[in-house]
Specification:
Number of strands: 29
Pfam family, one: TerD
Protein name: Stress response protein SCP2
Structural class: mainly beta
Helix content: under 10%
CATH architecture of the largest domain: Sandwich
Number of helices: 5
CATH superfamily of the largest domain: sav2460 like domains
Organism: Actinacidiphila alni
Length: about 550
């Protein structure tokens, strides 16, 4: 029986199936609407660093065929084959998306789904409908991502813009359409498409069948009274003046066009020399040569000052302060946009997103709309509809918190917007729990999903004031955001692992903790003493860990 997923829910693929050859089917429809359903193969930075792993209608498979577009079948609008054990190590996430091709918005779609089938059996299904969206034109439906093991996540995140905007969001490049060639005034009305007359004979030969060679994209035929012959390829082009386009050297074209002087440019170069600023036809400019200015032969258009953009005059806005012979000054808008680019918000469609090492964003619309609990005063920005309320610990909770030092003043964030958290420029680390548990000092907790269970845990000890230490234990499925002073270090637990109780941040709940007290009357009199009053010794099976920060509370 297929496991039903809600938006924001995640699971290990190994918990769903033991197979690695998966079928992913997407069903999405809408009145009078067509959809482009794609798969983005992203790297560890969630960017499309290799365009070959953008699987869509025009590129149906990856190089090693680990990702394949199968088309519509079995009631699915589109389907994919994903072979996990063949995906290269550079690909860390597969994002399945649907975009509208044409008019419409996602609020108009009928109920749809994304399903995962393995071994002929459906193992996962995520259902969605137009009621979950508004004016979006794209949906990031679901992810299959690698985090120690392959996992499945139901995303259901709307996205403004079509397939091009989604491609740019993932760092891909959209192929721009080539500009249309200028109007071919000299071509007769009966000339076939392609830019050169099909009846132009080669030099010295009879008129052959129409030539299918298309016109080059870099120019169009020069005005001429009659169609010009097609040039024949030559091993070494003769160093003659550039002939009229479409005519062999010395034949056809109107020589007056290329020999008449202009008001700004010098005369056409004498025979045997290339026009100024332009190498002979078919030759590569020498290294270090300045680029040719726009216009035939490297000359600027009539009346244009060299070095300026077409249609621009000295002092015109867009080149402030640029006079004749001076390099143009870049526009302030372009420079400002480029400078701010690296600070822009990181859109991922995930429940928790790290904007930078010291700021975290929580999308309350993800994860089934469950609330987030955060330290009071840690909100620095929010977008959309968000309600903030006081989260009390109750009478017993306050007593326990005061007695153990593990009291947390929390606020409850609900709604469908996005909340940004930070505190005193501390480093933030999201820790995702999948049914496991972790122990964290309350001082180091910034925010966490309300679905997580949390309680005060006592660490027994002898020879220390109070006879015990305390910490918070978080358990369940969700994310807890831990803050540290500086960049922490994560170490595996061994029988000889000790940590200062004031520097320890967190450890795996399965670890055994033993308190090592070094209280002495004159500890400076004992050589080799570390100077720490209380140390914690950790023991446990392989796989357990501790997190220590370079700071003592």
């Amino acid at each position: 029986m297929a496991r039903e997923f809600q938006r924001g829910h995640k699971a290990k693929i190994s918990d769903l199936t033991a197979g690695t050859d998966l079928y992913v089917g997407v069903q999405i429809t809408g009145p009078g609407m067509t959809f482009d359903i794609s798969c983005f193969g992203l790297d560890d930075k969630e960017q499309l660093s290799d365009d070959r792993y953008f699987i869509f209608f025009n590129q149906p498979k990856s190089p090693e065929e680990s990702l394949q577009l199968l088309g519509a079948q079995s009631g699915d609008t589109e389907s994919f084959r994903v072979t996990l054990d063949r995906i290269p190590a550079s690909i860390k996430k597969l994002s399945f998306t649907a975009t509208i091709d044409g008019n419409g918005q996602m609020s108009q779609i009928a109920p749809g789904y994304l399903r995962v089938v393995a071994g002929g059996e459906e193992v996962a299904r995520y259902s969605f409908s137009g009621a979950e969206f508004s004016t979006e034109r794209a949906i990031m439906v679901a992810d299959i991502y690698l985090k120690d093991v392959w996992r499945f996540a139901a995303v259901g995140q709307g996205f403004d813009g079509g397939l091009d905007a989604l491609l740019r969001n993932f760092g891909g490049e959209v192929a721009e359409e080539e500009p249309a060639a200028p109007e071919q005034a000299a071509a007769p009305g009966f000339a076939p498409p392609g830019g050169v007359p099909g009846f132009a004979p080669p030099p010295g030969g009879p008129a052959p069948a129409p030539a299918p060679a298309p016109a080059p994209a870099f120019g169009a035929p020069a005005p001429a009274p009659a169609p010009a012959p097609v040039p024949q390829p030559a091993a070494t082009p003769p160093p003659l003046p550039a002939p009229a386009f479409g005519a062999p050297p010395g034949q056809g074209g109107d020589p007056a066009i290329h020999q008449a002087p202009t008001m700004v440019a010098p005369m056409t170069a004498p025979p045997g020399q290339a026009p100024p600023g332009q190498p002979p036809f078919g030759q590569v400019p020498p290294p270090g040569a300045p680029p040719a200015a726009p216009g035939f032969g490297g000359q600027p258009p009539f009346g244009q000052v060299p070095g300026q953009a077409p249609g621009q005059f000295p002092g015109q806005p867009g080149a402030p302060g640029a006079g004749y012979g001076q390099p143009p000054v870049p526009a302030q808008g372009a420079g400002l946009a480029a400078a701010m680019q690296k600070y822009r918000e990181t859109p991922t469609g995930q429940r928790w997103t790290q904007q930078n090492p010291k700021m975290m964003r929580a999308d309350l619309g993800q994860g089934g709309g469950q609330p987030v609990l955060a330290r009071q005063g840690s909100m620095v920005l929010y977008q959309g509809k968000v309600d903030f309320g006081y989260k009390g610990a109750g009478f017993t909770g306050r007593i326990v918190g005061n007695a153990t030092g593990q009291e947390m003043q929390l606020m409850r964030c609900t709604g469908g917007g996005q909340v940004f958290f930070a505190e005193n420029a501390a480093y933030l680390h999201p820790i995702e729990l999948q049914g496991d548990a972790i122990c964290v000092s309350a001082e180091n907790v910034l925010a966490f999903d309300e679905s997580l269970q949390h309680e005060v845990r006592r660490i027994e000890g002898h020879g220390i004031p109070g006879g015990a230490l305390f910490t918070m234990q978080f358990q369940g499925t969700g994310t807890v955001v831990v803050k540290t002073h500086g960049t922490p270090v994560v170490l595996p637990v061994t029988p000889t692992t000790y940590a200062d109780s004031n520097a320890i941040v967190a450890w795996s709940a399965a670890s055994q903790v033993i308190i090592s007290s070094q209280v002495r009357l004159r500890r400076t009199a004992y050589p080799g003493h570390s100077g720490e009053t209380v140390n914690l010794q950790f023991r446990g099976a392989p796989g357990n860990f501790i997190v220590v920060q370079p700071y003592e509370v």
